[in-house]
Amino acid sequence: MNLSFFYHFGRYILFLKSMLTKPEKFEIFFKRLFDEMYKIGIGSLPIIAITSLFIGAVTTVQTAYQLVSGLISKTVIGTIVSDSTMLELGPTISCLVLSGKVGAHIASEIGNMRISEQIDALDVMGINASGYLAFPKIIAGMIMIPLLNIIAITLSIYGGYLAGEWSGILTHDEFITGARSTFKGFTLFFSTVKAFTFAFIITSVSSYHGYYTKGGALEVGESSTKAVVYSSVLVLFFDYILAELML
Amino acid sequence: MIEVKNLNKSFTDKHVLYDINATLLSGKNNLIIGASGCGKSVLLKCLVGLEKPQTGSILFDNRDILNMNPVELRVVRKEIGMLFQGTALFDSLTVEENIEFPLRFFSKMSPAERKDRVNFCLERVNLPNVNKKYPSEISGGMKKRVGIARAIALDIKYLFCDEPNSGLDPITSRVIDELINEITKEYQITNIVASHDMKTVFDIGDHILFMYKGKLWWEGNKEDFRHAVKEVEELKLFIDASYFE
Fold first, then answer.
1. What pTM did the predictor assign?
2. A16 burial class (0-12, 13-18, 19+ CB within 10 angstroms)?
């Protein structure tokens, strides 16, 4: 087995630990936190909205296409759209999109600061660079990404509903009846737990790759790519782990 | 005053600094010179704590920074200012926010007091009316001045300058040299400059340390240096090469 996995895993744990060893002033932390919440949350809203609406719409149309038997009620389409959105499409697809958008941004921002000696400047000043740069991003991600997940679920179901109505696949009543028939609070809770976990993975893995960038502009690009690839794979891996543990 | 004793530094399989012993004087411009790759930047990084040497000690006014706990080290760090080769200004902050940055972390000043201090530092480096500009909107020479202003925002005792003239035209280089010299004398700080610009050495150098292949090859004042360039073969080669650059 490749030993570099253990090297990176160990360094990742030490990186997380270093963020908490020397907290900075709360006033500075909160200002950074709100800046990051704005960047991650509001900045990602358009891409999440567009992705979710289309995923919901496509789910409705494709589910209808597969329901060839007249014995099955059309309300099932509403059920499938709402359940699959809450369980899988909302958190997982949104977070895969966010690992590209937010993850690449975090890795390139911190990586650029590394190669232009800005992180060295923080170190010389005696400021905990990882705590100052990465910690607010991780907390901001863990607050905003679950909220984005709720928005993604809502818009996805709405997208499914609109597609159903516009194409005449099912009526308003059929969709709503189906969507509400099997709704369980736990499904939403599970979805939120997923989003929360994925948020931590995306922000921390991307921060790690950016923080340890070495070299120049080319390496910043490599760090961004690694951040997206590793966080996407880990999102899928933990998607399975959480499903096994909680369902 | 900073004393370096028996300092050794290596990276995996490459030894970079060999048993460095040096004294860096307070109120003086201490110039570390040498060809690219001789180890002067690594020595500077060891001095400011960005690299940890394998053996040796570094004493900042008799305080060994290599054997300090994080709390003690934080006290010393507040006394250190550094001008980086690429200035290392924070891109996302304006000029005044960059200078205010260390004050927000380490001083108990009110916002109004911080603003006054920022304006004072900007005036000191002859750079008024750029408060609201971003680093990307100012020239290389102005960035260096902002870097110096940020370095002196707190009451520092030690100033480290890594290649302060790199990327600057000859006239701006002299202006930056003169500014560093003025600040060193005015605040009586221990100034350490890593450079390979011979004009800087002859203009502002008080105490000169010549490094060659990771070793401290020669150390002395400017008068001795004038003699040494005729006698020390490695120094002579370095000076000749510098004039060809």
1. 0.89
2. middle
